[in-house]
Amino acid sequence: MQQSNYGAARRIFERYIPISEHTIHQQNAEYYVAFCALSLYHKDGESLLTAFIKNHPNHPKAVVAYYELGDFYYRQKNYKKAITYFEKADFKVLDQSERHAAYFKRGYAYFTQKKFDAAIKNFNEIKTQEGQYKAGASYYAGYITYQQGEYAESLADLKRASQSDSYARLVPYMISNVYYKQKDYKSLQQYAEPLLNSNDNISSKADVSLLVAEAYFHQGEYEKSNAYFAEYNTKGKISPELSYRIGYAAYVSGEYNRAISSFKQVSGEQSTLAHQASYYLGILYIKQKNKPFAITAFAQLLDDNVDAQLKEEALYHSAKLNYEVNRTHAAITMMRGYLLEFPNGKYRSTMSDLLTQAYFNENDYDEALKYIETLSTYTTQVKQVYQKATFHKAIELFNKNQYARAVSMFDESLVYPLDNEYQLGAYFWKAEAYAIGKKYPEAAAAYQKVLWNQNSKGSAYHMKSRYGLGYAYFDNKEYDKARIQFYEYVENGGINDSKANHHDATIRLADCYYVKKEYAKAIQYYQKSISQSKVDNDYSYLHLGLINGIESNVAAANQAFDQVIRNHSRSKYYDDAIFNKAQLAFENGDYSRAISSFGMLIKNKPKSKYVPYAYMKRASAYYNNKSYDRATADYEAIIDDFTKHSVAREVLLPLQEVLTIQGKSQDFDAYLAKYKAANPDGEGLENVEFEAAKGLYFNQEYAHAIDKFKTFQDSYGESNLIEDAKYYIAESYYRADQYEKALAYYTEVISNEHYAQYHKVLGRIAELEFLQKRHDNAIYFYQQYGALASSKKHQYTAYRGLMRSYYLIDQYDSSSNYAHNILSLGSINAGSMNEASLYLAKAAMGKQDYQAAKDELLTTLNTAKDEYGAEAQYLLGKIQYIDQDHEKSIETLVSLNSTFHAYDEWVGKGFLLIVDNYVAMDEMFQAKGTLQSIIEGFPLDDIVAEAKQKLQELEAGEASKLQKIDSIEAVQDTLYTDQ
Question: At what angle do helices 758-771 and 722-735 cross, to 10 degrees?
Answer without folding.
Answer: 30
